Structures are given as C-alpha cells and as structure tokens.
Amino acid sequence: MDRRRFLTHTAVSAAAIAAGAFVPGYAAALSNNLAMEKTANQKQHKRYRPLTKAGMGGVALGNGFQVNPEIECYQAMEAAWDAGIRYFDTSPWYGLGISERRMGVFLKDKPRSEFTLSTKVGRLLEPHEDFQVTQALWKGKMNFGYKYDYTASGVRRSVEDSLQRLGVSSLDIVFIHDLSPDNGDMKQGWLKYFEIAQKGAMPELTKMREEGLIKAWGLGVNTIEPILKTIEVADPDIFLSATQYSLIKHEDDLNKVFPRCAERDISIVVGAPLNAGFLSGKDRYDYSGTFPEGVKEKLASIKAVASRHQVDVRTAALQFCAAPEVVSAVIPGFHTVQQAKENARSLSSTKIPAAFWEELKKEKLIAANAPVPAAR
C-alpha cells in the first residue's frame, strides 16, 4: 500500500472508531444534529454564515505549541468530518503555510459545496529555507518567511497563493489577520497598518465578494478595537473574534461588539473558545505565554460549580460560546481524533442543566446578561 493510500485508510479507520461508528446510532446522531444547523444557521440572514456552528480552527494543524504529525492531523480532520463538522478555518500564518497545505490535502476530495472554508490575509509568505520564526508559537522546521502587506495587490496575491496551497478555486470567508494592537510586530503602530487596509484590503475584498471569489470578509483579531473601527469605515460580513468570548472573559464582546454587529447582520466566529486549551486542561492561557491575574482562580470556581452539577467544563465552555444568536460558528483547535470527537459531542448532543448556568450567574462567574444554551 503506498503512503497516500495508507494515510487515507488509517485516517478513515481511526476516525470511524473515534466518531463512534461502533456505538449504534452515535455517529449518525452527531452528524444529523450538526447537519440540522445548516438551515438554521443561514435562516433570516442576508450575509453569509458558515454551514454549521461547529468548526475546526487550524492552529494545531500548523504545529502550534508543538509538532503534530501529519497522519494525526489527517485522522483528526476525518473524525471531525464524520461527526458532521463542516467549517474549517486556517491561515498562511499558521505554521507559515503548513496548516493550509494540510487542510487542502484533506479537503481535496470532499464536495466543495458541503463545507465552509476560511483563511486569512495580511502576511505574504516568502520562500526561506529553515526560517527562524521569532514567535514561539510555531514549532518544527519552517521553509517560509513572511512580510506584512495589507494593500489591494498584496491581498489579491495572498488569496491567490492560499487557493494554490489549499487546492480550491474559491474561498467562503477571508479574514484580515492580526491587524490589532496586541500584534507584537505592530503594537501602537497598528493604526498605520489599518489605514493601509482601509484603502487597500477592505475595498479589494469587497470587490472579490462581488466577483464571487469569496462570499464574505471581515477581520480575524484578538482585540475588539479593530472590529469596532472596521464597522465604522467598511462593509464587513463576519468577524473572527479570538480570545474575547469565553467562560473566562466575555464582557467586552458581549456588551460592545455583539450589539454593533447585530445591527448590521454581521456575525461572529468565536476563536479560542477554550482559551487555547486552558478550559480543557492545558497549562497555558491564550497565546501570550502568561496567565492574567485571577484566571486560575476563576477557573477553579467554575470547576467547583461544574462538579456540583456533574458538568464537563470543556462542554460548558463550547456551548456557552455558541449560545449568542450573533455567533455563527465556534472553532476550537484540535489535532487528535479524541479531541475532534469530544468537541463535536460537546457542541451537538451533551445536555447541561439550567441550574448550572443559574449558579454561574449567581456567583458572578459569567455576566448576568450572557446568553446561555436553552435547557434540554
């Protein structure tokens, strides 16, 4: 058996086991629950929304935090597909091309109309043997460097390059990436980059939307200021708001971003809903490498409430992020079959008692006005 057939055979076999193929009705129920969202997620909205709220973030596919073997990544994607997940998000930045290439290999033989695919612009990749990335997030060997380019021509080229790496002829969503004050390369200079994007990237993406090359565009950022500013100056459809809406931190998105988006039928993709693994047991918080004051204590309090109600914290975290109507997708990252299975099950079938949410609000662990999942 050649390598390609071996990878496919192994991925399908492992994914079938992980997705519950040998538990009667389990995989079918998961897939059906997520498939039902396809109609509900688009209903009464003029702007494009992903096919399902359950999605997959591509950071781990780019060797984020650690090197993840290719076969393990393909198996995880197959398990996600078998469980009904149909939204896949990536970026040239994730592993400097590695995530896009891996995702493209997996999606190559899938019907293009049956999944949502998003990637990002803002960094152009340049061939560079064994490039040493200054950020500690990406592990392993890098064969590309990068430069920032938010001009119209740069964004057009970035999209064309991504189409090549992904092996598709069109994209559903394009996010302008890391145009934000938390970007260590920009810091307070981000407004200069924003001005370039306002004159270049934003009108060019609107043009691509009119051409049919993409269906929607917005920003993919870790702060709220760029989102609010973009709403003022352009015509975005959707934002990827990462690290801003989770059980740990959500008030700014909830009270400042969500209402403004709802006014214009703009939706939100929640990135890092588990705070980069913090809410699922990892010893890290988001992407900075530090723990903000009070987050460990807050998690301990949430765990205590969850224990009293026999609720899994990861499941609660994902369902909490999916509850607002303005949220069109939740995209936790993962790279194993088990993680894919757990995330899909958490988002589609696991029941959480209303008393759990009531106690979280009573203890002021989540905002009193935060939407929570309907009682099941």
Structure summarized in a few sentences:
The chain is of the alpha/beta class and 376 residues long. The chain has helices at 3-18, 26-35, 37-42, 70-82, 98-107, 152-166, 190-199, 201-211, 225-233, 251-263, 295-309, 313-322, 337-348, 354-362; strands at 55-57, 87-89, 116-121, 123-127, 144-148, 173-177, 216-221, 238-242, 267-271, 327-331. The relative contact order is 0.13.
Instruction: Enumerate how many helices there are, as a single number.
Output: 14
Backbone CA Rg: 20 Å
CATH architectural arrangement: Alpha-Beta Barrel
The strands making up the biggest β-sheet line up spatially as 1-2-3-6-7-8-9-10
Number of domains: 1
Class, according to the CATH hierarchy?
Alpha Beta
Q: Could you say what the CATH topology is called?
A: TIM Barrel
Describe this structure in words.
The chain is of the alpha/beta class. It has one domain (3-362): Alpha-Beta Barrel (TIM Barrel). The chain is 42% helix and 13% strand. It is built from 14 helices and ten strands. It has an eight-stranded parallel β-sheet. The chain has a two-stranded antiparallel ribbon with strand order 4-5. Helix 4 (70-82) links the parallel strand 1 and strand 2. The longest helix has 16 residues, at 3-18. The N and C termini lie far apart (47 Å).
